[in-house]
Write a structure and sequence with these properties.
Length: 184
């Protein structure tokens, strides 16, 4: 592959959740390879892929992958593609470094777009529990001290913010960065 190839990280929404919409990671790796991507690696069953491509930007690749995925598997999954630089900034700009050592209590939401001030204010009004959050551009950082599963606020984020998103815990964020580093 040429020196101009870029590393991308793909975050799927809504696959392999609750035993529904099952996509095996080996099949997903093959799917990406068949599309011409190189150095394809997956991480855990929730739909995380790292690959290298000399063609396309994140937005174009997202659209292409969504269409090809729906054609192959017969259902739609929102696919967010981010380049390695975006992922490195996500990690570097973590506003809660003091809880990074508790990776199941710190989450990053990849947002389809940066929320408006009104959308952010609406979400702030709902944050009344032990959780705290911060939005930096198109990333929402959530510290859920009791874990995501027990967080009432975390369940309110999609309905209140109304910006398409997919969340990953900090352990996954770091693992994807490591995979992307190996790819580079």
């Amino acid at each position: 592959m040429s020196a101009q190839a870029k590393i991308f990280v793909v975050l799927f929404s809504g696959i392999n959740v609750g035993g529904n919409r099952i996509v095996r990671m080996a099949e997903l790796r093959s799917f990406f390879e068949e599309l011409g991507f190189r150095d394809v690696a997956t991480y855990v069953q929730s739909g995380n892929v790292v690959f290298r491509s000399a063609k396309g930007d994140a937005a174009t690749l997202s659209r292409q992958l969504e269409a090809a995925f729906e054609k192959k598997w017969g259902f739609y999954s929102r696919i967010m593609v981010r380049d390695l630089g975006w992922f490195e900034r996500l990690a570097a700009e973590n506003p809660y470094p003091e809880v990074a050592g508790e990776p199941t209590k710190l989450h990053a939401y990849a947002l389809e777009r940066a929320p408006t001030p009104e959308e952010t204010a609406r979400l702030s009004e709902k944050c009344t529990g032990p959780e705290r959050f911060e939005i930096r551009g198109d990333v929402l950082y959530l510290h859920a001290p009791e874990g995501l599963g027990k967080s009432v606020f975390a369940n309110l984020i999609p309905r209140t913010l109304k910006v398409p998103a997919t969340a990953r815990n900090w352990r996954t964020v770091l693992a994807l960065l490591e995979l992307a580093g190996r790819s580079g």
